[in-house]
Amino acid sequence: MDPLAALRAAGAQPVDIQALFxxxxxxxxxxxxxxxxxxxxxxxxxxxxxxxxxxxAAAEAADLPGWRxxxxxxxxxxxxxxxxxxxxxxxxxxxxxxxxxxAASAAAVAGTAAALRAGAVRDVIHIGIGGSALGxxxxxxxxGRDGDGPHIHVVSNIDGEAxxxxxxxxxxxxxxxxxxxxxFTTAETMTNAQSALDWLASHGVADARAQAIAITARPDRAxxxxxxxxxxxxxxxxxxxxxxxxxxxxxxxxxxxxxxARLRAGAAVMDAHFRDAPLARNxxxxxxxxxxxxxxxxxxxxxxxxxxxxxLRLLPAYLQQLEMESNGKRVSRSGDPLPxxxxxxTWGGTGTDAQHAVFQLIHQGTAIGPIExxxxxxxxxxxxxxxxRQLLANMLAQGAALLKGRxxxxxxxxxxxxxxxxxxxxxxxxxxxxxxxxxRLDAETLGALIAFYEHRTFAAAVLLGLNPFxxxxxxxxxxxxxxxxxxxxxxxxxxxxxxVALAGL
Length: 505
Prior knowledge:
The chain is of the alpha/beta class. The protein folds into three domains: about 30-60 and about 275-470, 3-Layer(aba) Sandwich (Rossmann fold); about 85-265, Glucose-6-phosphate isomerase like protein, domain 1 (Rossmann fold); about 475-505, no CATH class. It has 22 helices and eleven strands. It has helices at about 5-10, 15-25, 25-30, 50-60, 65-75, 95-120, 130-145, 160-170, 185-200, 210, 220-225, 250-255, 255-275, 285-300, 315-325, 360-365, 385-405, 410-415, 420-425, 445-465, 475-485, 495-505; strands at about 30-35, 40, 125, 150-155, 175-180, 215, 230, 300-310, 345-350, 370-375, 435-440. Helix 7 (about 130-145) links the parallel strand 3 (about 125) and strand 4 (about 150-155). Helix 7 (about 130-145) packs antiparallel against helix 15 and helix 12 (about 250-255) packs across helix 13 (about 255-275). The termini are far apart. The model has no long low-confidence stretch (mean pLDDT about 95).
């Protein structure tokens, strides 16, 4: 069954968004919602309310309520790996035994963080990749700038320049390593870890491996490796959902265990909302329906996310993995080819910088897709109020301009009657956008925001018939890279064969 077939069959019909406000008096109320310190306005998306009602019916037909129950019950929702998805247990939500296991891990994390904060450690090098790095980096950048604990350096790239620059900024005698790998075999992570250990040894640090902290779902391998401290998390916690687990240790080290606990508590509020709210008043569900409609009803397979807060500058990169690794699939849970698009290409940047870089295309280019603005009502700095007002005004003006545009006659009046110049100054308008306005950026609100995106991704996956918890598409490249390192000849195409020779592999 394809619950989106009827909507897709209608074709990509243009939608006059401004006209919707006049035709739908309850539009703003139905497409605006405040949850957990986050106000979302989806009313400027190209989503007519009758279509929303059809999408809600499609969600019921796809058994979104049933899949939601199974997710929270700890049932298998990752069929290709035969696993539940228990990242919510890390924030105290879910099946009792999963929550108990997560609580024990959280206590160990808090103890480890307290010890590092109380000691002579000045720098912690956190080595991981994917969710093991993107999540901690986001947390530290967003919340850790004023932290009073050791400085955190997140290293993920196998490019040695990343690690070398980090090492150069650290004192070996006052540095600890945190090595994060779910399997504790991730090639990039283990290579970076070994190079960091070599650096410590070369500076006289005795038994650096025994001082390292390992975070993994395979504690046996970490102990065999020789890690002095091993913190584990469940196999059923996916990498891109792992910041709630022991992988969140850097935040606890930098800011204190209570801040990590508050992050989890904020996420738990959004969990409860997603679990309990009816579909029509459920923020992650509404956003997911809009995402699916943009791709299937409007032919738009890109979504730009722009954070008008410097502390959220890493959010677009984090969302890229969350959304595209989760829902960037070509077959359904049953292995059948998808009848339509899957995940949108997620991209973005930081406002107002992006206004002077990519917004030309957004306003007047030919590639159209929803734009998502994120801002914080109350700033985290102590500068004059006018400074933050300018930032918010810029954000709000962009959304208004995308919708309103500027017609040719108005542009002509601004161009002294020069028709060619007027055409260059004409803005088509009617371009979709959504706005997320946070009351403030603190641990609780950031936790709710990230959980919102997680549940939004899950809800979209259900509508599309996808498994959002596996990622087989990343494996082939890893296999071929290992073959190249080993010098194996796998009969590469002529281009790859020549490049291998030129690179000296």
